[in-house]
Amino acid sequence: MLKTLNTATKESIFYKVPAFIMDAIIQVGTLLWILYGTHMIRAKNLPIYEQDGTWVILIGSLLLSIAIAGIHLNERNRSAVNIASLAFLNAFLTWALFNGLMAIIYELTLQGKTLALQLAVTSILTVMVHLLFRQIISLIRRKGANNYPVLMVGSAQNLLSIYDYLIHDSFHDRGYSVLGFFSEEGGEIPQDATRLGGIEDCFGYIERSYPNIKEVLCSLNPATHTETVNRLVQLCENKMVRFKYVPDMEGYPKRKMRFSQLGSVNVISLHDEPLNTPMAAIVKRGGDIVLSLLFLCTLFPFIWLFCAIGIKLSSPGPVFFRQKRTGYEGKDFECLKFRSMHPSRDADTKQAVKGDSRVFPFGEFLRKSSLDELPQFINVLKGDMSIIGPRPHMIHHTDVYSGLIGDYMVRHFAKPGITGWAQINGCRGETKELDEMKRRVELDIWYIEHWSIELDLSIFFITIWQLLRGGDQKAY
Predict the structure, then answer these.
(1) 463-401-276-373 Cα dihedral, nearest 10 degrees
(2) Distance between CA 405 and CA 14 in Å, rounded?
(3) Which CB contacts under 8 angstroms, 24+ apart, belong to 295-303?
(4) 318 — phi, psi (to 5°)?
(5) 173 or 310: whose pLDDT is higher?
(6) Are strands 265-269 and 332-338 parallel, antiparallel or unpaired?
(7) In the structure, what pLDDT confidence band is assigned to residue 6 with cuts at 50, 70 and 90?
């Protein structure tokens, strides 16, 4: 059976359908357990839940959530964190849709503890099951089934880099199989790769083997190999083999570029900006508003009272620290924090350092626990910031580093965030060396070029996990 797992249709049957069935079992089983095993449901609500329409609404909510978020267990370049984030998103959307529809259709009075228990159980179980399915898929691929056969034509450095990427250990169980190289005389290929012949030999090979070839990656320059490339494209399209051109971009920054056309001319933009679409902007801004309102109206008043008392007892001055920082598209805004330092003249030019004398003891606790950042949810609600994004830097740093790092200002193509991709990857706090800031900028740009809902969820949960583990050692 393993040998048959080769097409997208079969992948859906063998991977996605069982995952959907398990998700449905989790949703139905959890609701049954809550109704009859916990005795948490009020007597007046129980007859409402026992109606047949309840189960139709539940399964319908699950189907709708999958239509929105999708099931991507079999996609080859998704990490475990990404799979877990999508699983949580499916569980959360199902929970929100089901309970919202039950409240509207049946005028059901929702119970807070029941809602929390249902979300916790379905989320945990869904994440566990999806990760288990991912491990099973990896095992199947390690046994040689469900491979995605790729053929290489050429020997340019970019093509060799792709080969290394595809056969790297961390991707080996994702099912890529490089059949071999067709290269020019004298062209170098990796030592562990198979050379199948010269460039002209690829045509006969594809004619004979095309049912077992999914994709051809070609690095031949169409300006100097025009006829060969055109013949290869025509052959691949006739045989339903996907053709991808690997251009020689040596000297250009290694970024996620975007391909487009101006008139009939092909153009490559140096940056892909997934956030620069109306739908993405609506989704991200909507999530920011909902989550910031939820936090500011529930937990924040108690946190503010606790922090305000601690700050006032530790140091004279205001509770909030307000500082001009560089925001979206280079525009300045006033960033809010709980004050953790004694007032000083160099507050807007000097970073906090280890053992900084300006930091008072309670302020050190605020910084270590990241509580000092929480007032920025007000900035999020105002629209100056997002929950996830590149951290905003003080204006002085923008002035300095924009002259030292060529692509520094690119990080302002997205709204600044309370936490971000650079922060969860260790780029936080003082930057003693220029290379440290370069690394932070690289990660910020990577986030902008690869933004997705799943990525934001991954950053959000990793941030929480890091805080629960004790925060960042560089938070001083």
Answers:
(1) 30
(2) 49
(3) 295/374, 295/377, 296/377, 296/378, 296/381, 300/374, 300/377, 303/371, 303/374
(4) -70, 160
(5) 310
(6) unpaired
(7) very low
Residues 160, 306: Cα–Cα separation, whole Å: 57
| Mean pLDDT confidence for 311-329 | 92
Name the CATH architecture for the domain at 148-251.
Answer: 3-Layer(aba) Sandwich (3.40)
Contacts of range 290-296, beta carbons closer than 8 Å, 24 or more positions apart = 291/380, 291/387, 292/377, 292/378, 292/380, 292/381, 292/387, 293/381, 295/374, 295/377, 296/377, 296/378, 296/381
> DSSP assignment, residue 152?
E
CB atoms within 10 A of CB 30: 23
Least confident of 74-83, 185-194, 314-323, 399-408: 74-83
- Please tell me the distance from the alpha carbon of residue 56 to that of residue 64, in angstroms, as a whole number: 12
Euclidean distance between CA atoms 349 and 52, whole angstroms: 65
Query: Can you state the angle between helices 80-105 and 453-468, rounded to 10 degrees?
Result: 100
Helix (H) or strand (E) holding 182: strand 176-182
Q: Are strands 258-262 and 265-269 parallel, antiparallel or unpaired?
A: antiparallel
Q: Where in the chain is the domain with CATH 3.40.50.720?
A: 148-251
Q: Which amino acid is at 40?
A: M
Per-residue pLDDT reduced to its tens digit, 191-232: 888 899 999 999 999 999 888 898 999 999 888 899 999 999
- Give the DSSP H/E element, type plus range, for residue 172: helix 169-172
